[in-house]
């Protein structure tokens, strides 16, 4: 088993996190219309509220996203030898695997259990796929480059 370079994985996770906010933030503003679909009473947040959110909300959002990105990168580092591919492709495969086992079942459960517009669910699936590809690519490039 390959030695996991924790510090490098953390740096890779932090890079993925920054890129996630750039891509995710742009996505919310481009596709914010999904928050106008009925029923609207299910949303705690929408892109128009960004400037009005409390400091506590931002701390939870940024802290949670940062922790998730670091965990993503650490799991990538731990499973490195078992992930198919090399370089960027390895990261994209890992992002796809995480999306398939993490996001798809959750969205399916939302579809079955909630009264939520199918277009919003399709947006969430697509947005998450793009985000996990960004995570995977960033982690593969940063972690892989630093371990050579």
How does this structure look, described?
The structure is a single chain. By secondary structure, the protein is mainly alpha-helical. It has one domain (6-146). The chain contains 4 helices and no strands. The protein has helices at residues 6-30, 55-79, 87-113, 118-146. Helix 1 (6-30) crosses helix 2, helix 1 runs antiparallel to helix 4 (118-146) and helix 2 (55-79) crosses helix 4. The relative contact order is 0.20. The mean pLDDT is 85.
Q: What is the count of distinct domains?
A: 1
Please identify the structural class as seen in this structure.
mainly alpha
H and E string = HHHH
**Number of alpha- plus pi-helical segments:** 4
Weakly predicted, low-confidence segments? none
In angstroms, what separates the terminal alpha carbons? 16 Å
> How many beta-strand elements?
0
- Largest sheet at a glance? none
Helix content: over 70%
Rg over alpha carbons: 17 Å
Residue-averaged pLDDT:
85
The portion of residues forming beta strands comes to under 5%
Shape: globular
Offer a concise description of the structure.
With 148 residues, the chain is mainly α. The protein has helices at residues 6-30, 55-79, 87-113, 118-146.
Any chance you could write out the topology, listing elements then pairs?
Elements: H1 6-30, H2 55-79, H3 87-113, H4 118-146
Helix pairs in contact: 1-2, 1-4, 2-4, 3-4
């Amino acid at each position: 088993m390959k030695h996991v370079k924790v510090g490098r994985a953390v740096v890779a996770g932090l890079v993925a996190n920054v890129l996630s906010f750039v891509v995710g933030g742009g996505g919310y503003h481009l596709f914010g219309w999904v928050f106008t679909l009925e029923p609207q009473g299910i949303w705690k947040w929408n892109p128009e509220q960004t400037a009005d959110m409390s400091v506590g909300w931002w701390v939870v959002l940024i802290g949670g996203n940062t922790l998730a990105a670091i965990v993503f990168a650490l799991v990538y580092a731990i499973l490195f030898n078992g992930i198919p591919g090399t370089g960027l492709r390895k990261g994209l495969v890992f992002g796809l695997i995480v999306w398939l086992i993490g996001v798809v079942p959750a969205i399916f459960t939302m579809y079955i259990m909630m009264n939520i517009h199918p277009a919003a669910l399709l947006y969430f699936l697509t947005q998450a796929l793009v985000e996990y590809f960004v995570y995977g690519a960033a982690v593969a490039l940063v972690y892989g480059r630093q371990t050579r």
